[in-house]
Amino acid sequence: MANNSSIGIEWAERFETLLDNPGEEPAAIAPDAPDLLTPQEMGAADRLAVASGVRSSALMERAGEAVAAVAESMLPPGGRVAVLAGPGNNGGDGFVAARLLTERGYRVAVFLIGDRDSLKGDASLMARAWKGPIEAPGRDLAHGAGLIIDALFGAGLDRPIEGAAAAAIEAANESRVPILAVDLPSGVDGASGAILGQAILATETVTFFRRKPGHLLMPGRVLAGRLTLADIGHDLSILHDIGPMAFHNSPTLWLDGLPRPQLDGHKYDRGHALVVSGPITGTGAARLAARAALRIGAGLVTVASPPDAIVANAAQLTAIMVMRMYEADGLAEILADHRKNAVVIGPALGVGDGAIAMVSAALDSDAATVVDADGLTSFAATPDSLFMRIKGRGAPVVLTPHEGEFSRLFPDLGILSSKLDRAREAAMRSGAVVVLKGPDTVVAAPDGIATVADNAPADLATAGAGDVLAGMIGGLMAQQMPAFEAATAGVWLHGAAAAHVGRGLISEDLPEALPAVLSALAGP
Ligand SMILES: NC(=O)C1=CN([C@@H]2O[C@H](COP(=O)(O)OP(=O)(O)OC[C@H]3O[C@@H](n4cnc5c(N)ncnc54)[C@H](OP(=O)(O)O)[C@@H]3O)[C@@H](O)[C@H]2O)[C@@H](O)CC1
Ligand SMILES: Nc1ncnc2c1ncn2[C@@H]1O[C@H](COP(=O)(O)OP(=O)(O)O)[C@@H](O)[C@H]1O
Ligand SMILES: [K+]
């Protein structure tokens, strides 16, 4: 199907290459390793590592070593450390770090939730190797400490934190002492980034082998602070067996597929994007989207304008063309010209039957289609009719809702705590690539492959930013970039453009920042 994504497949192929040419990989873990593993997948990675001959206690020793190394960078020589250890293997990592830091001259106090005799397996082993005292945490657990190591709960957290552990988290947060979290800030669900009961607000977090979705999804991303990814001895080949379905949105994933102008190329080779304008009271959104489509490389861009808005549009456009459009039939006529191979519809379109008819006309065409804003809201009462049209066509569709628009189209998915799951369900149900926007924008394809972005500065929460994103994705699809890749690249480039502009950003700045961002990506 046209919407299917190739990122997962391409990345898997790249691993094959890395495995065949190990010399080409500078370290076991590339710093931009994009795979995200859920806690369950990470558990499987640990089991696979053990099955391949790595001792689980060796994994824990290296995990504790990685924690100790970051702790040292956060402490003055001989500084005081409070280690909070939990009842599972996360606590085991804490005991290793406590031992190593003591050996290196730091003054370490260990506070355990539960008792040492209840610890099992490697955690029990590491607790026995700790020769110092073990205390029960009280309100003053951080007293005199220069650093708290949070080793209460990691990948094994499976219910809301209460009681003594919740009180310890509260005391740690209130102490204002910097906190280094082991694997995850305790209380953060590694799959969703959601808080289960109570959570540590970490200064830094050390995680192992691969990041988890909860390190990137809100609020987990903020609670984790600065993230270090440590190699503790997993072989890369493990990823083949696991087959990750979620990826960190970084250029590593899509840069090879980003359209580039060719020396022997022609503007007609770079596609023709059509952006549908709203009525006279709402024409700016379409112009923002159109400008973004042109800046991102579409060869030609046309704004299809209702007759009452044609003067407003024409007066403010130069390189972008304007065409008069008489409602849905007019749009269908314009799109009958197959050279117009991508259409962006929805920004400031107005909500109602007229908008439904126009979106339907766009979906009846052969053009790759981005449906945004009012184009989505108009289907709040009849979402299935939108999904049926999407599934019934050959060309790809990208839906770009923010959380409000999303909840109108998929009201029952609000119960899912994971933004990743919400976007995936929506993609599966609608047959479209879904871009669920926000500070942690998720792009999901109907086959379950998804990306999570973390590069959007808060400045992007400004009027019209979404219109620009829709135009960028449409502009990439006009250049034949597949829908999932176009959406993923569009989201990253949108964030990068905002970061390039910095403070004072308004949406008009975003298309203008694209040349710098694209040039930097293209290299010297
Ligand atoms: N596996 C490996 O090889 C490696 C793993 N590594 C490390 O192991 C960590 C995962 O370890 P894990 O699976 O033992 O889980 P962990 O996060 O310690 O917590 C589970 C414990 O907490 C309990 N519990 C859960 N929720 C609770 C709650 N709300 N309130 C109270 N209790 C709760 C639950 O017990 P339960 O009561 O459910 O029986 C269980 O005892 C991982 O994050 C990484 O740091 C590294 O060393 C590298 C090698
Ligand atoms: N707090 C935030 N941090 C970073 N990016 C954000 C934040 N809030 C929103 N965004 C991004 O800003 C854009 C806003 O889009 P949208 O809500 O559609 O606004 P508009 O309708 O005004 O264009 C989206 O790309 C979204 O991902
Ligand atoms: K932790």
UniProtKB/TrEMBL annotation:
Pfam families: Carb_kinase, YjeF_N. K(+) binds at residues 90, 150, 186. Binds 1 potassium ion per subunit. (6S)-NADPHX binds at residues 89-93, 154-160, 183, 285, 402, 467. The keyword Phosphoprotein does not apply. GO terms for biological process: metabolite repair; nicotinamide nucleotide metabolic process. It catalyses: (6R)-NADPHX = (6S)-NADPHX; (6S)-NADHX + ADP = AMP + phosphate + NADH + H(+); (6S)-NADPHX + ADP = AMP + phosphate + NADPH + H(+); (6R)-NADHX = (6S)-NADHX. Its EC number is 4.2.1.136, 5.1.99.6. The keyword Nuclease does not apply. SUPFAM superfamilies: Ribokinase-like (SSF53613), YjeF N-terminal domain-like (SSF64153). AMP binds at residues 437-441, 466. GO terms for molecular function: ADP-dependent NAD(P)H-hydrate dehydratase activity; ATP binding; kinase activity; metal ion binding; NAD(P)HX epimerase activity. PROSITE patterns: YJEF_C_2, YJEF_C_3, YJEF_N. In the N-terminal section; belongs to the NnrE/AIBP family. Belongs to the NnrE/AIBP family. Catalyzes the epimerization of the S- and R-forms of NAD(P)HX, a damaged form of NAD(P)H that is a result of enzymatic or heat-dependent hydration. This is a prerequisite for the S-specific NAD(P)H-hydrate dehydratase to allow the repair of both epimers of NAD(P)HX. Homotetramer. This is Bifunctional NAD(P)H-hydrate repair enzyme. The gene is nnrD.
